[in-house]
Amino acid sequence: MSSAALIGNPNTGKTSLFNTLTSSYEYVGNWSGVTVEKKVGQLKNKSGALTDLPGIYTLHPLSRDEGIAAEYLVTDSPSLLVNIVDASQLERNLYLTFQLLEYGKPLVIGLNMMDVAKSNGLRIHSETLASSLGVPVVPLVARAGKGAEELLHLISSHSIQAPDFHIDYGNAVEAAISNISRELNSVLPEHSPSERFIALQLLERNDAVLRSLAIGDEVKAKIQSICDLAEQRLHKSGVETTVQEHIHSVRTKLIRDICARVVDATNRKPNTLTEKIDAIVTHPIWGIPIFLLFMLLTFMLTFDWLGTPLSDLLEGFISGPVSTWVDQGLVAVGASEFTRALLTEGIIGGVGGVLVFIPQIFIMFLIISFIEDSGYMARITVMMDKVMELAGLNGKALIPFIIGFGCNVPGIMASRSIEQSKERMLTMLLVPLMSCSARLPVYALFAGIFFARSQALIVFSLYLLGIVLALLLAKLFSMFMFKDSKSFFMVELPPYRMPQSVTLFRSTWEKGKGFLRKAGTFILGGSVLIWLLTYLGPGGVAETMDDSFLAWIGGLFASMLQPLGFGTWQSGAALITGFMAKEVVVSTMVIIYHASDMSGLIGQIAMAFTPLQAYSFMVFVLLYTPCLATVGVLRKETASWKWTLFSIFYSLGLAYIMSFIIYQGGRLLGFA
Amino acid sequence: MSACHNCLLGLKPGISAEISHFGAIDPALKRRLADLGISIGSNITIKRYCPCGGPLMLECSGQLLGIRQKEAAEIKVAVS
């Protein structure tokens, strides 16, 4: 079995290719830093494993996701490197290629984005590139799957040899390389990358490589003195730069020579489509209003125009025919009263009550996928960076935030691409304030009952509240809890491209699948449990629901929730069970306020809350404790219980304070 | 931030210039720029400035990127 690894600069299409070669559906998008984890798949012709890695520019990592790729190369030993290179940015991509060639393992270049290069008027001679570097080169258009078969064939042929690639870095550096190699020779384990490669990385002061080597302090000190000596010798020979800069400039010069032979740029033209779109959507005055308008349209589409009408149809189907069929079927097989109630009230009520919001959730996912795949994402970070900077964050934090609107878990993962540790930590702590799709059913249910005429606006106000609070808290946290640290912002702006409908539907489906999976696990299990808790009480089968266990549990918190406007055991119970997954709030409500049909349910809930109380409840659901899955990923990504607990408690406190202000303030203003 | 002498910040959009010197910028940012092939001698063009002191959008050998004004003020350029 062979093991190949995909390596290349960020946003060059590695994951698109990975998906084609292994028939997987990993997350793709049009910005730098989509993939933040190592992913392993089986090649579709079963000839071996393929690893997909986060994108890197050099083997010297700056951010967490880059560290993963660099570490992988030093500690694992793939038998083949598949270097994906962006043909439209050949010069910058080849820098990593050079480092990979020095790595000493068999290598094949996938020359991707040939279509982009062509539309930019560049002619790329891939045979010349292959002969200059001494490795096979396969031209690709990964998005369309072009060239993938040939590459797959080449990967599985096991015929690729390790390249014979050697750059002469001049006497001073070459002497240092052979001295370091000699030190490493006896201490390196088998299957390590070539000594020359490691020596060069050490001369470039790559701490990540140094850390991952299992060598003693004595050897490290020796290597350090060899590096220092090399620098002195370099200076003596009249080169004024550091060893790192010298190595960099030797490579860059060679790359330019190669590019001059490989790339014919005589007909080069600017990317007119990208320029035209940018002139509108990043316009100095209209850019931000256009972004806000786009968001508002998203909500109109999700709620008023398309989502709610579809959701009503689905609701009618589930509470009508489906319920009736199941009940009739159960009667026909002679099921007990208990079983019938569990299935129709508990499961169909609880799970169905959430499933009816599938249309809204999928429309939202579709729009998020469009932003991700079009190239707009990176522009938003630029336009909003100033606001984010004032709050002590980085424009790049908007990427986790926007992903967080779908689900907070991948949002927190996406913070890995933020370079500064303070800004990354802040971003991770604040992502849970982004209203994820699990909270959407709660809004859809309540806004549909109490604010039917302005659903989209009410829901938009909740999303905005989450964002505004995140920014205010970012300022607060960075003032009191983090030492002021340096910050910089740099983001690449990829060319726009029209998302392909296949990719769009696939990424929408991949996001939506998570929701459906939850419906079958947490929400189903939760619904059964909640129904049982309403059915049973301290004295056996509960006479009325007010005597049930659930009423007792919810009642413990009712008095505390009184000042917020929803001091009932029903609200208390819904919020506690909502910790599993926030959709369960809706399941609980539907089970508690059970009625034979939707209009009955609406009537019940409309009696239990006033509009002001309903809004206060929605704000509480927006802000309170992140769900179980989010807490889990926070623990993993922050590697600290302290920060995880902090995130749980600050959000609980924030929810309480905000709901209190809204309810009591609203009452003072005369709302009910 | 006021425009400074011979620096990237203050260059009119659409005018191309060559980078001559990097001042006091974060070494990590300097490396990021080098990663993208932006170093001394590179040709660089400003595409547009964001309002209210926000970042600016640049182009360097076909690659678009955004950086903050504070950093752009530390990059010296020579108009060719």
TrEMBL record, chain A:
Q: Which membrane topology describes this protein?
A: Multi-pass membrane protein
Instruction: Spell out the InterPro entries in the cross-references.
Output: Fe2_transport_prot-B, Fe2_transport_prot_B_C, FeoB_Cyto, FeoB_GTPase, G_FEOB_dom, Gate_dom, P-loop_NTPase
Task: Report keywords, A-Z.
Answer: Cell membrane, GTP-binding, Ion transport, Iron, Iron transport, Membrane, Nucleotide-binding, Transmembrane, Transmembrane helix, Transport
Q: What is this protein called?
A: Ferrous iron transport protein B
Q: Which NCBIfam families match?
A: feoB
Report the residue ranges that make up the FeoB-type G domain in this protein: 1-161
Protein's UniProt keywords contain Transport: yes
Free-text function comment from the UniProt entry? Probable transporter of a GTP-driven Fe(2+) uptake system.
What family is reported?
Belongs to the TRAFAC class TrmE-Era-EngA-EngB-Septin-like GTPase superfamily. FeoB GTPase (TC 9.A.8) family.
List the transmembrane segments: 285-306, 347-371, 391-414, 426-451, 457-477, 515-537, 549-566, 615-634, 643-663
Q: One matching Pfam family, short form?
A: FeoB_C
The listed locations are: Cell membrane
UniProtKB/TrEMBL annotation, chain B:
Q: Which UniProt keywords apply?
A: Iron
Organism the protein comes from: Paenibacillus aceti
Among its keywords, does the record have Iron? yes
A Pfam family of the record is: FeoA
Record InterPro entries: Fe-transptr_FeoA-like, FeoA, FeoA_core_dom, Transcriptional_repressor_C
Transmembrane regions: none
User: Ranges for the Ferrous iron transporter FeoA-like domain?
Assistant: 6-79
The family database entries (PANTHER family) matched by this protein are listed as: FE(2+) TRANSPORT PROTEIN A, FERROUS IRON TRANSPORTER FEOA DOMAIN-CONTAINING PROTEIN
Note whether Iron occurs among the keywords. yes
Query: What is the name attached to this protein's record?
Result: Ferrous iron transporter FeoA-like domain-containing protein
Q: Which domain of life is it from?
A: Bacteria
